[in-house]
Amino acid sequence: MQPLVRTVGISKSYPSGGTIVRAVSNVSLAIEHGEFVAIRGRSGSGKSTLMNLLGLLDRPDSGTYTFNGQEVAMLSEDGRATVRSHDIGFIFQQPALLPRATALENVELPLIYAGISPSRRRRTARDALDRVGLGDRGHHWPNQLSGGEQQRVVIARATVNDPALILADEPTGSLDSATGNEILSLFEALHHDGRTIIVVTHATEVANRARRLITLHDGQIVEDSSASSDNLRPAALAMDSLP
Amino acid sequence: MSPLESLRIAARALRVNKLRSALTVLGIVVGVGAVVCMVSVGAGAQAEVSEKIRTLGANLLLVMPGARNSGGARLESGTQPTLTIEDAASIRRELADVQVAAPLLSRSLPLVAANRNWVTVVAGINPDYLVAREWQVAGGRLFTSDEIASGAKVAIVGAVIVEELFNGGSGIGETLRIGNVPFTVIGVLDKKGLGAAGRSQDDVVFIPLSAAKSRVLGAVRGTTREALDFISIKVSDTTAMSEIQRDVEALLRQRHRIRGDAPSDFRIENPADVLFARGAAMRLLASLLIAVAAVSLVVGGISIMNIMLVSVTERTREIGLRIAVGARRREIRWQFLIEAAILALVGGLVGAFLGAAAAVAIAWKAGWPVLISPWAIVLACGFAGFIGISFGLYPAHRAARLDPIVALRFE
Ligand SMILES: Nc1ncnc2c1ncn2[C@@H]1O[C@H](COP(=O)(O)OP(=O)(O)O)[C@@H](O)[C@H]1O
Ligand SMILES: [Mg+2]
Known about the structure:
The complex is a heterodimer. Chain A is built from 8 helices and 10 strands. Chain A is α/β, with parallel strands linked by helices.
């Protein structure tokens, strides 16, 4: 079976004050179905940019990206929107909820754009809220929920369309460590359910819970170690990135 | 995403900011309201004018006693009895295009029939008057020449009189006291409806002019027996109205021995002209207001655009989030376009309702028929929707162009 994510030499640059910043530079990476990957690195090392590229929110300047067997680097905007709505779940650092929609409606959002009927939508969203332990809070407004609860609603939303890949960019960054740990337990549970998860984090505990740790520096992968005994993957990757 | 879904999302966004949405559409409300109101009022006024001209007869001239200068003081019009039956006879005799020149003498008097009372206009006429007014009897008969010559105590009454005094009966053959003088009703007139002054033309009693002068009106008036209220002239050729008007004037000035540039002691009016002028003035006013309304609609469109731009900025994060979870650009664009169109359409509907209500109130106050033009409503609302969509295009485009990564970072 092909890896879920396979990038070969993807780069992304931004013009910044007259010069060009290579936010992601020649990154080659393969992630299998069911992996739980942590990405770390100093601020400005390109973690968010890489997540945006992997999540098809952005397009690489160069390189190829095969997601779920489909070549997506050159996909049209609408094509990428379709992949996002069906196969990708995003979790951002700031709990990003629509303030004028209830928790349940927020969870339904991706299903609306995936064209799912209202009644099925409601049912699916309720199940997703149940899984993050907020089944009884569906009618609450975001400002009636704590930061941790809001982030759990976001996780419910990111998993509601049963995505192939879940991306979380510093999901515990705005939370205290106890609440952060609860969120991380949710990720572990998702991993046990067989989902593929990539988490950007500074916290070492997170990194420890992940099965694989990737370190970025100046837009490049400087370390890719598996927490499991399976150390063959970096070698395979190196093979992949050969011209 | 289905169109219904887009509609639901847009309606929800508008409901969140109810007051702002309401203020935004004010320009559209005023514009559409003014168009609907003015078109309806204009149509009602027009119908009213046409109807009055129809009941009056289009080929009618009225000669009324006018002011005469007396010691520098101008007497009020109509106080000097200057028109005589001989004047009427000579207009008929001397001017070829005059079909009928009918003298009339009238006064408001109390009527009594059986035990009922009523006050109305009692007018002394010759049968010529009914010819000039193109007025037929619905029942009974007209005056005979014997009755005219002898001043017989017979009356032809309007429909309102039958209703008020002879409730149920036809009235013909009944006795009617005018002042204290008993008259026999011999005819009932066709219904004419409201007149130019807004009063029912059917609230009238006609008696022979000679009877009026000798038995009823002459006595109370205490004026010369020759005096008339006015002479109605029916013209055979409507295209020659103004020439005939000049001829009548010259003839009467000569008969009244008015020399040089001294003012006439009578006035000649063409009621159709007066009504036409009034109708034209109404229409001009209405079209001016419609122009103002068009400006108001454009201003309303600009205010929609302004608020939509503010809304796009405020909801930058929302837009970024929607794109991140899979919204296509065109779905974002539609969402904002639909919001603008709903604003404009709701404004249009509210405006149409208020405009129609205002038109009904105006028509009711003025005694006009109410003519709410459905076309004006459809057109005005359609135009409002068009304005909403055109002025919503740019904000919607701005929203759809947002980069989700930048939008999600937006504070
Ligand atoms: N939209 C952008 N415009 C300009 N520069 C950017 C933009 N996004 C990221 N960068 C730059 O790219 C580099 C990597 O940023 P980022 O991926 O956000 O890093 P991290 O998430 O690891 O902190 C930084 O130097 C940042 O300034
Ligand atoms: Mg970052």
